[in-house]
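so im writing up the methods section and need the MmgE/PrpD family protein record in one place, dumping it here so i stop losing it
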Amino acid sequence: MKTYSVRAHTSAEALPRSEQLAWRIAEVATDPVEVAPDVADMVVNRVIDNAAVAAASYSREAPSAARAQALAHGASSGGAGATVFGEPTSTRVSAEWAAWANGVAVRELDYHDTFLAAEYSHPGDNIPPLVAVAQHAAARGLTGADLLRGIVTGYEIQIDLVKAISLHRHKIDHVAHLGPSAAAGIGTMLGLDAETIFQAVGQALHTTTATRQSRKGEISSWKAHAPALAGKLAVEAVDRAMRGETSPTPIYEGEDGVIAWMLGGFDDEYLVPLPEPGEPRRAILDSYTKEHSAEYQSQAWIDLARRLHREHPEIADPDRVERIVLATSHHTHYVIGSGSGDPEKYSPTASRETLDHSLPYIFTVALQDGAFDHRGSYEPVRAARPDTVALWRRIVTAEDPEWTRRYHSNDPAEKAFGGSIEVTFTDGSVFRDEIAVADAHPLGARPFGRAEYVQKFRTLAGGVLDEAEIDRFLDVAQRLPELGSGELGGLTFTMPEAVRTAAPRPSGLL
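--- predicted struct ---
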């Protein structure tokens, strides 16, 4: 990897295009590096992972609304169109709208892969727009191998940006890294030249910067829509760039650009690592999926809570507990902990999206139930249970400098997303324990491999998809690197007619 210094420049400095971050991203996207077998295997895992969550979220309101919007926009004249999760494979919509609908379905339950560093990210959000474009452009001769290379680029660019550039520190939503990464990935997949990808990356960044209020306070359904919009806008940016349209330049470093006015300003510098020419793209292997449907920084805490449920059930009894302190990293404390200052994180009437970002709530439910379910754990009746509310409001988080250091460590052996717990009982006794990483993490107690990804799909799709359709999708997904152009349309699933009929069909303007 080579590290590039990226900062704001005045117009008078006339930063050469070759030294601009968007151009360096385009250079990575055009470098014809072979995909290593372990990287290809992980791409397949994440395609399965995304589909699992999309199947489980099919009938929820946000995916249903996004799907209804997509179905109102038939395939454009430029290709065959793309499939929409749940619909028959013969139903095709315009690629950008498929990216939108499928992106919402994937993100709705906050249950797919994650990478955390200077910024937060769900790099699996790159997959819906790339699959949509691949299906739409299959007539151009695109294959599963092309899609594979595009997804690898998307992961590489997003994770490299996340390692270097903190957006949340400046109250910018993390999907601002997704627009450029998806545009770069599409460029790789289509075999576009560096100039076209450069313009697409700039447009994608310019149109996907927004405030972080979507993940603050009373969190709404927009949390699922934000990355889907970034994917949709990335598709549109590539389309415009292919037609010869240009972007604001320099988009990152310009005098009125993103760094100057949305990030650190002229006094800040970002050190961005990117692969050197010919260097394998392996960033996807740095990311990790979720065993539980909750914000990633709660994953290890859920596993600790499940263990304490078995070994120390007295901690789940609010009559015996005076106070519980979860000492953790800065990010965890301020984003999903009491450090956020959001009273909604302790409200039994809060939205599912808010409870998903409340570590005190999540830990309480996992501790009392010994499990955490993507449906039952968020039900209003579950959140309002008196013993849960009583214990929940006795749990606070605190930042611990050592856990913050480990959170930001570049050493995989010590990087951690958990923390330590201190329970003070009403009799004055104290209990302490800790956990560093989730059980499903590559360094956890039960790391996820292909079998676990397949089982996650079977579990989440079970009861909604027919068994034959589950088997068909898994067969196609696991053959992704070898798929021919005519098989790309199979990278979806079709819900039974009864499930499709029962799902919400909200009406709107279009």
